[in-house]
Amino acid sequence: MTTSNQRESQRLFDYFAIIGLSPDGGLEPDRLQGEEVVVPPLERSYLARVLGHYPDHAPPAMPFDSHAVQMLCLPRGLQFRTQKHMLEPRFHPFLVTKEDGSRAHGFAYVFYEEVNSKQICTAMHTLQSVYLTEMSSSHGKSSTGTPTNTRDTRSLPRQFRLSSPKSPAALHFYDITKDQLYVTKCITLVGQHPYVYAARKFLKELYRFFIQCESSSVSLESHVYNLLYEVPAPPAGRCVALSCVGRTHICQRPTSHELPLFEYSLREFFLCLGVESVVQLLTCVLMENQVILVSSDYYKLMLVAESICTLIFPFVWQHVYVPILPSSLHHFLDAPVPFIMGLQCSHDSRDTIQIPNEANLCLVDVDEGTVEVPEDLPQFPHRADFIQELTQLLNKWEVPTGKLDRKSAAQGSGADHWTSDYQSGTMPTKLSWNLNEHHSQYKYRRRRKCSWSHDSDSGVSSTEGSISGSHSSIASVTTSSSPSPLQGFIPTSNKMHGFDPFHLSPQLKEITAIAKKAGVFDSEEVERIKQEGDPEMLEELKFNNAVREVFLNRFVHMFCAYDHFVIQPNCQGTDMEQWLSCRETVQNFDKATFLSDQPEVHLPFLSRFIETQTFTSLVDHKILANWGKNNSNLSIFELRIKLLRDRYDDSLVRTPSYETCTTIKETEQILEKRLANIDYRAPLPQPMDPQAESCTQFNPGHFPLLDRIALNKEPHKSKKRSSHAWRRRERQERHLEHTGLSGDQRDKVIHEAKSKLQPKLADMSPAYMAQTNWKFVEQLLKECKNRTKRMLVEKMGSEAVELGHGEGSLVGVEENTLIASLCDLLERVWAHGLQSKQGKSALWSHLLNFQELEDCNDSSKPDNPNFLSPDLSTVALETESAPASPTKSSSNTNSLQKKPLQDRWPPDRSGERRSRAQDSSSGVPTLRPLPISVTFDMRNVLAMTEIKTHIGYARAWVRLSLEKKVLSKHLTVLLGNSKLLQDLYKRYAFLRCEDEKEQFLSYLLSLNAVDYFCFTNTYTTTMVPYRVVIFPSRKLSGASTSSNAWVSLGGTLGQTSNIPVPRNQVELVFQHKNLGLLTTLRIGHDNTGMSPKWMVEHVLVRNEVTGHTWKFPCGRWLGRGIDDGSLERILVGELVPSHITSDDLVESCRTPVRCRSPNMPGPRRSDLKLTIPDIQQHLGDSVNNLVKYFYKPEKERGSLTLLLCGDFGLVCCLEQVFSYGFKSTRFFGKNLYLWDYFERVQQHFEVLLREEAEREQLTGIARDGRDHGLNSMAELVGLVSRINASSSHLGKDDKFQLFVCLAARARLLPRILLPLQRSPVTSHMYDESSFLRDPQLVRDLINVLSALNDFEIVLESSLTRGID
Predict the structure, then answer these.
(1) Which pTM was predicted?
(2) Given this model, what pLDDT does residue 270 score?
(3) Alpha-carbon distance 812 to 795, whole Å?
(4) Which positions fall inside the UDENN domain (predicted)?
(5) What average pLDDT score do residues 395-400 get?
(6) What is the mean pLDDT of residues 457-482?
């Protein structure tokens, strides 16, 4: 049996209400609107009342909130106006949000009616007199003129004595002897469904019916009763035709597989803001910023708020949502939470709005079409392509996209658009009327008072938008066809005239022909449906559908694989209440793995978005679906994702390029078919009981209160047929209409269709199954070949295109996206032919089984701490349902637990005694190689705390193996266990096809030809152990130091603090957050103890996870009184190629740098007999390398620090330039360094600058610093001073290196050469043959170094520590 609550939910609308001035009360100010004593009485707000709502009873499912409806129907309270104002009706929707989060949709139609109460007019007159008295007294106090006579209320102050009554001051003045007073009144509908078109049409026609006072047996109560009780809300996928006071309207409702119902005009939404502003607003909403909408029109506030909340589908705004904020609730703007609020205010008063917390605020001026966004707003993914797709769609539908075109289209006087009759202050001529002219149609017309207007007797000129017409003009409006709510937004091209939905849709045309042939309905029925249908509404719904599909398509492509990263709870051991209770403390989404698959340019947006409540709620709905709590938005979203995956035949779709929407046409056809066939016709309004009709008190010119008794009487239940039977019968009739078949023919067709769906026995033969699986294996193999080739081409860049190995279109694709696609492909390969699914990641399940077998096989051998696998009894992965594998139970699978890094890299005691015995005589440290095994890399991945899912572990393992160039080797070992393969996979599985498996592994082996850093650059927050091995000099005097030594590493992702080196040890292991690719190393000591001097030849640093090793040559002393007196060295490292073994690397480090590499920093470099052409060639090559660096794509660039400070880098070449002809050797005293020369030049420049300052002070004439190099001198003096002050522990050669880097960044190098040439210090410290004393060589140097001025050199913080 249908309950009352269920009947209420089936109604189209639930309540009809009337709000206005209470006839029993007086003129009561609305105290909630604030004190308004300084404004004229006509501009003040007065208290409105709900005069009546029908029906009176309030069912629990839909109670009537009188206070909320009154505030939202008239947000500024009652407004009084005179005949001098514009008095057009206005329409606006609103929302009533309940405490439980549910919403009721309201629709208000506001109009003005005469005030006949002498009490109200007298009260308004009294308020006007008080206001004029206060204005006169304040004017008299502020001026010396004659005070205004206040006893004669018709004698106005000077500011009101204007020649034109249209001035603002005159419009706000009320004269009881001349003016007619009007007050706002509102009729409204409230319901649970957002049928904006139907509500607007009904309220508009009901008001027109009341104005015309036509003699009819059907009263106002009949029309309201028919809408509330006899018009049901259409079920999903159905259409209902209803009567809107004589005008037919069709309401439709989408199915559960379509986008939800939405009837606001997205066309007008884009006309108000434009494409770029819409995308900005969308980004702010997704980032959960505070959004304030400002407009003078309540409808536009609702339009923008509802449109942007609809376009973020499938996501739902989870915070405060008040599209129309009443004036009494403006203090809500101080809320420190995300919100969307709409403020109604005129353009002149917007500067007075007090908006707090503007740093996180998005301010939308709807009338001006501008959006002000926060400064740190990230860019929406594929923003340019997305805007281009939207622009093309708008151009296709002839929607203006330019700002001027949009304004002209929105404000054109000839555009009879659907907001025309409720916009404040404007109204098209066709639908506007003067209320006085309408009142002339009343049977008892009140004789209006004479107006003081010179233009017309009504006080409103014909140019103000009103028609001072006669009865014929009104009749022409009312007898003509009712204009569509969307008229004016539809293009006026010839193709739109005579619109015929049956003609535009070939499918509907074919269905119509079948239906005619079957005799279901004839041509007259077709014509009647076409006449009843609203083609303009259909076009608007189709446009809305197209725009919404484009936005949904973007989210589908962005989050097509989100479900693989959802951490599902153990539903068998946890109920929904337990999960909800610990919801805030449990991580439900593997954010690190999800972000690792995304393009780098999208990370600023995605990393913030997945932290929002908007995204978290979607994940929560995904988890709650395990307990049967299905969410409609999520169901539609996952259906679209499934369609995308089916189209690409990929479990985890990767589309690195932008893809436009392809579902618009299909959804349009569904919409056309539904609107072309009416499923149910609501009965027409019928005359009511005459006794009830006579109860209505009709006062001409005033919308009456309706009969409560008549509107509280529900229809008899016997007259209503069962909802289930109605739906079943309608379903059968609709099916017959669409097919054109009789009942017998329909049964025959269904039987044949079922027989075709049954698989034939021949199709289940082994040969057919083998052929089908063979095709799938070939497809996987071909895709693997294409993926690996594309990855190689992308890594090689433009060089691959030049060699003919790829197309230009492949170059530039995001490397991270291609690697994610490879991970997806591996998952599909490992998922093919499984005996039973063991979790979300088939690859990781296989690895876990392999790890357990390896541990079992090695159980008899002595345990080596370096090769121990994680304890399966304490190691825990994410808890997710997975059946037991053939080799291990599910309890072991879900009981794995990660071990900390220090437990996985204990001090290596195995072989330590042997190595000490071998190296005791030489004292040279060793670097033991890392084990190369599948399980070793698995332990590294299991220790990553930021990964929570099996798919996350599998992807991290693949990225790590790819970076170590052992992916093919690991998979070969993994697939070499044939017994495990037989237990896990069926015979036809891809992994059991020997030839294809070999080709597959060979394709993966080709990836070893290039270097990937996909693990290092992706997992930037993971903790990584680093091993540092110091190779001191083999000489006894410099092999050790008594001081406290330390090292500091710097990389592309950060730098460490000073890490102490244990006393008398040259090897240490420490953990730190991922530093990325290492670039610099600082090594030093505090110069304490008996023998602090220390000679360091090389330093090796190895990443213990990836195995990457960097070599930092030094070859210099550390200590005071030796070499250049440095206590700290800045070393620049180079990545050691992977083919060099540890033994070879150690052997090379045993050779002193000074003997093997004479080009390294140090005074001995000057001993090289290089010629001037050789030095010029080296310098030109180094500058060219820097220029090439900046012209390369960012992903193909190497290390800038290496180009500056490495072998034959800029520092090395300039050192050769400055060392050529330098008089460094001294017979008595210490040798001189290049830094000594720059310090003496600094002293000389300081003297010159001081003398120049004194000369300028005496003469008052300033010399051009650019011509004489004074500015360059000042910069050099300041730079040298900063380096000496902040780098006191650095040696002189390191200071010179730092000086070159900072001068190159400041573009100082080419500007300082001429002042250096003129300096007497140069002639004193350089030979005649040097570079600095030859003018031609100096000019050549300036020309070469000037090439660097076009680029912005950014130095690493580890290189400039203490300077910046």
Answers:
(1) 0.69
(2) 94
(3) 9
(4) 32-632
(5) 90
(6) 33
Say how many CA atoms lie within 13 Å of 485 toward its Cβ.
26
Give the pLDDT score at 351.
Answer: 65
| pLDDT band at residue 1027 using 50, 70 and 90 as cut-offs | very high
* Highest-pLDDT range among 38-42, 869-873, 963-967: 963-967
Tell me the mean pLDDT in the region 1082-1105.
Answer: 89
CA distance 1170 to 1178: 10
Superfamily in which the 768-1009 domain is placed by CATH: RUN domain (1.20.58.900)
Answer for the pair 629, 576: CB distance below 8 angstroms, yes or no: yes
Structure tokens at 1037: 């005097």
Helix (H, G, I), strand (E, B) or coil at 589: strand
Nearest to 494 by CA among 395, 394, 398: 398
Q: Would you say 324 and 298 are in contact if contact means Cβ atoms under 8 Å apart? A: yes
Three-state SS for 1225? coil
C-alpha 787/C-alpha 825 separation (Å) is 9
Lowest-confidence region among 621-630, 686-695, 756-765, 843-852 = 756-765
Cα 1326 from chain centroid (whole Å) = 62
Q: From the CB of residue 434, how many other CB atoms can be counted at a distance below 10 Å?
A: 24
Q: Where are the domains of the chain?
A: 561-654, 724-758, 768-1009, 1023-1157, 1186-1350
Using CB atoms within 10 Å of the CB of residue 35, give its burial: 0 to 12 exposed, 13 to 18 middle, 19+ buried. exposed
The Cα–Cα gap between 210 and 1241 comes to: 97
Residue 288 CB-density burial (10 A; 0-12 exposed, 13-18 middle, 19+ buried): buried
Q: Is 520 within 8 Å of 638 (Cβ atoms)?
A: no
Structure token digits, residue 559? 């989050």
Residues near 600 by Cβ (< 8 Å), separated by ≥ 6?
814, 816
Fold of 1186-1350: Methane Monooxygenase Hydroxylase; Chain G, domain 1 (1.20.58)
Q: What is the identity of the amino acid at 537? A: M
Asked if the domains at 1023-1157 and 1186-1350 fall in one CATH topology, the answer is no
Span 674-708, pLDDT tens digits: 888 888 888 888 887 655 444 445 566 678 888 88
Structure tokens at 592: 């690190």
CATH architecture of 1023-1157: Sandwich (2.60)
How many helices, marked H, and strands, marked E, lie in the chain? 51, 24
Residue type, 1170: L
Residue 200: partners with Cβ closer than 8 Å, 6 or more residues away: 91, 107, 109, 418, 485
With pLDDT > 70 as the criterion, what percentage of the chain qualifies?
Answer: 69
The confidence score (pLDDT) of residue 1066 equals 87
pLDDT by residue (tens digit) across 315-358?
999 888 999 888 777 777 777 788 899 988 876 666 666 665 56
| Contact between residue 1287 and residue 1301 where contact means Cβ atoms under 8 Å apart | no
| Exposed e or buried b per residue across 1341-1359, where buried means at least 16 C-beta atoms within 10 angstroms of its C-beta | beebbeebeeeebebbebb
Predicted local distance difference test score (pLDDT) of residue 357:
57
What integer pLDDT is reported at residue 200 of this predicted model? Answer: 92
CA pair distance 682, 226, nearest whole angstrom: 9
DSSP 151-200: SSTTS--GGG--S-TTSHHHHT---TTTPPEEEEEEEEEEESS--HHHHH
d(CA 1101, CA 1069): 10
pLDDT at 189 over 90: yes
pLDDT digit string (tens) for 624-655? 888 888 888 999 999 998 888 887 765 555 55
572, 575, 577, 613, 878 from 582: Cα distances, Å: 16, 11, 9, 16, 16
The C-alpha angle with vertex 130 and arms to 125 and 134, in degrees rounded to 5, equals: 145
Contacts of 924 (CB under 8 A, 6+ apart): 1031, 1034, 1146, 1150
Please tell me which residue, 428 or 146, carries the higher pLDDT value: 146
Q: What is the DSSP letter of 834?
A: B
Q: Which residues make beta-bridge pairs with 1023?
A: 1073
Give every CB contact of residue 630 below 8 A, 6+ residues apart in sequence. none
Of 545, 613, 617, which Cα lies nearest the Cα of 285?
613
